[in-house]
From TrEMBL:
Family per similarity comment: Belongs to the LysR transcriptional regulatory family.
GO cellular component, one term: protein-DNA complex
Protein's name in the database: LysR family transcriptional regulator
Record-linked InterPro entries: LysR_HTH_N, LysR_subst-bd, WH-like_DNA-bd_sf, WH_DNA-bd_sf
Coiled coil: none
Alphabetic keyword roster: DNA-binding, Transcription, Transcription regulation
SUPFAM superfamilies per the UniProt record, alphabetical: Periplasmic binding protein-like II (SSF53850), Winged helix' DNA-binding domain (SSF46785)
UniProt GO MF annotations: DNA binding; DNA-binding transcription factor activity
Domain HTH lysR-type: 14-71
Length: 302
């Protein structure tokens, strides 16, 4: 079979969204898993990839009923797309930084992590500085820093973005969230063995610890959605201890899980932002406040 060469419009511009979609498929070699990662419908992802192929005049993937593989042009595009998206993110950070009021920091925070003390201490240490705080979810905690939406973010591990600068703050133990009437609430703690056959709720495509069996409940993106599913009896959920303390409700009980790997709470930023004096002050303030709080907790326990 002879393939006709496609007509390539030299004036066609590369769409960064299509490149991002392409890289997700190239990483997973699976359209369904890539669509889950991107939080888009699979048909929309397939259309975007076909449109990119039409823009470039090449076939990027070989597809059959059993597997998806990269073609030579697809392999070449992976490297180029990575560089283009990195440059675009850097350009966005530079432009946004130029448009900000000097000494203003945009801070991202995760549900359950209380940042008030750090922000108040920072504004005392850096008079005249302004702080904008925005909430971020698990699926954007890295991207929000990398693309410049926030300057510094409180994050919970694990993370996959190797270009971010990470400042560890404290360990956040895992606890299990159960419906208030669940039989395991009769115990002061719940073991990993107790959870082995329990239906466990997880964020879609999230890097969570594989404990128990999947509940089958899909479409969970936020902590509120996860806890609502627990209360409705769709399954149990491992959540950070800080989130459990923040989200207290009568229809949910929390129990510690000895032996479960803790999350690590940390600050994430980019190398460019880390050079700004106000960012350095903010990070050192967060470290100092965390150390003070840890010492106070230790003193109270003695």
């Amino acid at each position: 079979m002879v393939r006709r060469a496609r007509h390539l419009d030299p004036s066609a511009e590369l769409d960064l969204r299509k490149l991002r979609y392409f890289l997700a498929v190239a990483h997973h070699l699976n359209f369904s898993r890539a669509a889950e990662e991107l939080l888009v419908a699979q048909p929309a992802l397939s259309r975007a990839v076909r449109a990119l192929e039409a823009d470039l005049g090449v076939t990027l993937f070989e597809r059959d009923h059993h597997k998806v593989t990269l073609t030579p042009p697809g392999t070449a595009l992976v490297r180029e797309a990575d560089m283009l998206l990195s440059r675009a993110a850097a350009a966005r950070r530079t432009v946004q930084a130029a448009g900000r009021t000097p000494r203003t920091l945009t801070i991202g925070f995760r549900p359950g992590i209380i940042i008030t003390d750090v922000v108040q201490q920072f504004t005392k240490a850096c008079p005249g500085a302004a702080v904008n705080a925005i909430r971020i979810e698990w699926d954007e905690q890295e991207a929000a820093v990398a693309d410049g939406r926030v300057d510094i973010a409180w994050i919970r591990t694990p993370i996959a973005h190797g270009d971010l600068l990470i400042t560890p703050l404290f360990d956040d133990p895992e606890v299990v969230a159960l419906p208030a009437a669940h039989p395991l609430t009769a115990y002061d703690s719940v073991s990993l063995a107790d959870l082995a056959n329990q239906p466990m709720l997880r964020y879609d495509a999230a890097p969570e610890h594989e404990i128990g069996r999947p509940s089958g409940k899909r479409g969970i993106r936020t902590m509120e959605e996860k806890l609502e599913a627990v209360a409705l009896g769709h399954g149990l959920a491992l959540v950070p201890e800080t989130a459990a303390a923040y989200y207290q409700r009568p229809d949910i009980a929390y129990r510690p899980v000895p032996g479960a790997s803790p999350y690590q709470v940390a600050l994430a930023t980019t190398s460019d932002t880390a050079k700004r004096p106000e960012a350095q002050i903010f990070i050192s303030t967060a470290v100092a406040v965390n150390a003070r709080n840890a010492a106070q907790r230790g003193g109270a326990a003695r």
